[in-house]
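Here is the promised in-class demo. Please do not try to memorize the tokens; focus on the logic of going from shape to residues.
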């Protein structure tokens, strides 16, 4: 699987909170996650798409993954969702960022939001960060053996808003557990080790017209 070097994030008009099948997603580039250590193709495919809507001042994200077994027993926001099945997005505003947002959503639509400080020697999480106006909708499509999650991230989550010509730096991830296959760690840009907090692996999120 070839490495993803950047993601072009275009301006697309969308509903306030798109459904996972809305036509706006077909206009956003489709990218697939790989095994974060080896770069190989995971047993279950996971795609991610992103776009922005400047009228709404919001960034939109959709994960869509094959899913034949769900492990998600947490029932409160900001619990340790990363210990079970989850979709994740890490996003900062500088190359190889030392500070970035960590956003996670579980199959049951619970969220984990944190500001991360990562100096290369350790990680500090601020769970009081919050993102006013952040919205999610997650569907367990059991007949199709898929899980999909749609996120709306308002521009106010960032110190400077997205705009054409700017670029942020990000990575997208998935953790999936299976009773016999074990744990699968997936990333849009592979980290080379079983760890997602690798800012050097973040790729440009290029805001195109």
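The designed amino acids, position by position:
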């Amino acid at each position: 699987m070839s490495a993803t070097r950047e993601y072009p994030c275009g301006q697309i008009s969308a509903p306030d909170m798109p459904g996972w099948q809305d036509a706006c997603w077909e206009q956003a580039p489709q990218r697939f996650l790989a095994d974060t250590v080896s770069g190989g193709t995971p047993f279950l495919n996971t795609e991610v798409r992103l776009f922005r809507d400047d009228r709404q001042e919001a960034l939109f994200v959709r994960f869509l993954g094959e899913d034949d077994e769900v492990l998600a027993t947490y029932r409160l926001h900001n619990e340790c969702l990363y210990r079970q099945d989850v979709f994740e997005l890490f996003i900062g505003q500088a190359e190889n960022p030392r500070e970035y947002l960590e956003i996670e959503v579980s199959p049951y639509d619970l969220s984990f939001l944190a500001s991360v400080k990562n100096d290369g020697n350790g990680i500090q999480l601020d769970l009081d960060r919050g993102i006013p106006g952040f919205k999610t909708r997650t569907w367990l499509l059991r007949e199709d053996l898929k899980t999909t999650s749609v996120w709306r991230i308002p521009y106010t989550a960032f110190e400077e808003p997205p705009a054409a010509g700017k670029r942020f730096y990000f990575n997208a991830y998935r953790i999936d557990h299976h009773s016999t296959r074990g744990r699968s760690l997936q990333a849009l840009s592979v980290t080379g080790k079983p760890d997602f907090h690798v800012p050097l692996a973040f790729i440009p999120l290029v805001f195109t017209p």
